Amino acid sequence: MSKMAILISCLCLLSGCGGNNENPPSGTTPSETNGTSAQPGDTTEGGKAPGGTWDPARGTATLKGTVRFDGKPPRRRPVQMGAEPACAEHHKTPPVSETVIVNADGTLRNVFVVIKKGLQGWKFPVPSEPVVLDQVGCTYVPHVFGVRTGQTVNIRNSDGVEHNVHLFSKRNGRLNFAQTKGASRDHVFKRQEVMVQLKCDIHGWMKSWAGVVKHPFFAVTADGGTFELKGLPPGDYEVEAWHEKYGSQTGKVTVGDNETKTVDFTFSKKKRS
Ligand SMILES: [Cu+2]
Q: Residue 168 is part of a domain; what is its CATH number?
């Protein structure tokens, strides 16, 4: 086996690449995105099931990678907030769409990367601290985030206007409530689901995506388009990379004790189906 760091590179020009691709058309709901496919971590296929509570001493392996965008980056269109002056005046410069953000170096932001298979059997302690989802300037912050099953999401409205938080989910029930200025409400997702969508019914441009995961091995790409999943047990893994417009890709990798392996992904307009 080569020692080359890059085991998998889902280059979009190669036929067959993205065979697990579940690309949705733009604007589809999360349930449409994921169709009837298995949810990450739900399967017992393809790996050992060590069982029991997670032992951090086993977490010696690291997976890292870069998510790139192939092609001319789409223009980030202005978000029209004129109908709600309190939203528009919050922004010093006109807000632009967060749907596709290609970094200056050609990498792609807001891609949710998660271990899809290989961790079944472990039970991971749930963090006591909440994940915060705020509404600021009539924008959800963050736009894409991860949260653990059983972990609290603290949903806040830091704006001076009323919002509505509406969950679109296939596995986590219903959630739909109005939130007045300065309000705060906690919510806990009970079932793994990659992804769920939160929208404001009052301001149609307000959308946020959450990956609800049973384990702690997930990341969202930011500037630089990179991710790193540290503290993994050595093993065989399937890694999923999800983007709200360009769908999902998966890659397989084997990582050993004290090893670091790289799994890269490339998205492009061509991968839409
Ligand atoms: Cu709103």
A: 2.60.40.420
CA of 203 to the centre of ligand 1 (A): 4
The pLDDT of residue 12: 33
DSSP code of residue 99: S
Taking residue 204's Cβ as centre, other Cβ atoms within 10 Å add up to 11
Query: Which residues are placed with Cβ below 5 angstroms of ligand 1, an ion?
Result: 163, 200, 202-203, 206
Task: Judge whether 210 lies within some domain.
Answer: yes
Rounded average pLDDT over 252-258: 97
Average confidence (pLDDT) over 168-190: 97
Q: What is the pLDDT of residue 66?
A: 98
Residue 20 lies in a domain: no
pLDDT tens-digit profile of 19-75?
Answer: 333 333 333 333 333 333 334 444 333 345 566 888 888 899 999 999 999 999 999
22 part of a folded domain:
no
Helix ranges (H only) for 72-181 are: 85-88
Please count the structural domains in the chain: 2
| 101 Cα–ligand 1 center, Å | 22
Q: Which residue has the tokens 């986590």?
A: 172
Residue with tokens 């009837």: 36
What is the CA(125)–ligand 1 centre distance, in A? 34
Q: Between β-strands 235-243 and 112-117, what pairing exists: parallel, antiparallel or unpaired?
A: antiparallel
CA 164 – ligand 1 centroid, Å:
6
Question: Rounded to the nearest whole angstrom, what is the distance from the C-alpha of residue 176 to the centroid of ligand 1?
Answer: 12
Q: How far is the CA of 154 from the centre of ligand 1 (A)?
A: 16
One domain for residues 69 and 113: yes
Domain of 91 in residue numbering reads as 7-13+57-121+224-273
